[in-house]
Amino acid sequence: MNKNQQWTSKLGFILAAAGASIGLGAIWKFPYMAGNNGGGAFFILFLLFTLIIGVPLLLAEFIIGRSTQKEAISAYKAIAPNSFWSLIGRLGMATASIVLSFYSVVGGWIMIYLFYALTGKLWEHNNDFGAMFGATISNPYIAVGAQFLFLLCTIFIVSLGVQKGLELANKYMMPLLFVLFIVLIVRSLTFEGAMQGVEFLLKPDFSAVTAQTLLDAMGQALFSLTVGASVMITYSSYLSKKESLTKSTTSIVSLTIIITLLAGLAIFPAIFAMGMQPAQGPDLLFIALPYIFANIPFGKVFFVFFLVAFFFATLTSAISMLEITVSSFSKNNTKKRPKIAAIIGLCVFVVGIPSALSFGLLSEPVLFGKTVFDLADFAASNIMLPLGALLIALFAPLKVSKQVVQEELSIGTKHGHIWVNAWYFLIRFVVPIAVLLIFLNVVGVFSLFN
User: Fold this and answer.
1) Which residue of 144, 147, 427, 430 has the fewest CB atoms within a 10 Å radius of its CB?
2) From the centroid of its chain, how far is CA 436?
3) What is the mean pLDDT of the chain?
4) What's the pLDDT at 341?
């Protein structure tokens, strides 16, 4: 492989992989899901499922990618030539592209609100943030234009390649994300009544746990590490053979959990301090939080910090979603990469236009009572991503030789045999059952047990 198409360091790989995981799932979806599922108990279950489901799947993708040194589709072909298994890579490309098509819509909203906050326009509506949000996302020119700008940022970074694009962007964005979150948490914890929010997040009440809570926590663990779309196969293919996969996995999972915790500590104390409901819903960021920060000293400045942090997290995830497709078509040809990134990015933009218009011109449900935006979200998050995870859990222990697994998991650690045994047990027995339960939840079969 071209050395320019490899991470320059383990840190670069870890920050990029963590950046791929940390985004809407950790900062937007987790607070919303935790708010709907009782807080502390959901967080504990999320941690448990991250370790027993997310980690084995993450390692599986790392083993496939690093052992072959190829992007997703070529990696499956190298391990199982002349078979249908390469369809997993194509499924991953399709999943990532669909996710990016509506993900970029939300990324555009963040850019709009960052502009509003910086220019002061956000604070000119007498705290009627609900009406402002509705007017903004229903305006077709604003919604589509912002989506296009967000995708341009994503295309630009991916077109620069692994070292000058993906790695360099994450080296700056991820540390800054941590710093901004620490600033927000310090301010959030100074609110009167903030400790109620901390208690809600960290004090589990398992009496409130239902079957739905278990399934939601498993789904959150799956999505938080971006496993199932073969994105991490592509990222790990750029990793040197000298680096430890187990240590990298430990670092990435730890960073993802920490950012998820920081997001909760930044949001829930403020929510409780202002007397709002933790289950505010998906409009939390754009309606509830502006109201909170508008009514506290220096709140407008801190909300800008929050939006910057959220934009960075969203952008790093978007980069990974575009990268899996660009790498598959460019085949490490750095000269073709900018053109391919532009073409694929524009195709994603066109596909995502109906999602951007789902809150205005195309607000009427089109199927199963869902808008185009909701359908894209449901199809990718609840069907395609779990399906990809299930297929990877079947493929890895079946097709990747035990010798390769032992070699990949033993590099850089004295406890390789422990990792190998634990991985085989979890990937063979625990992960498939857990993912199947998620599928049962999607189709409503699991409701029979409630």
Assistant:
1) 430
2) 21
3) 84
4) 92
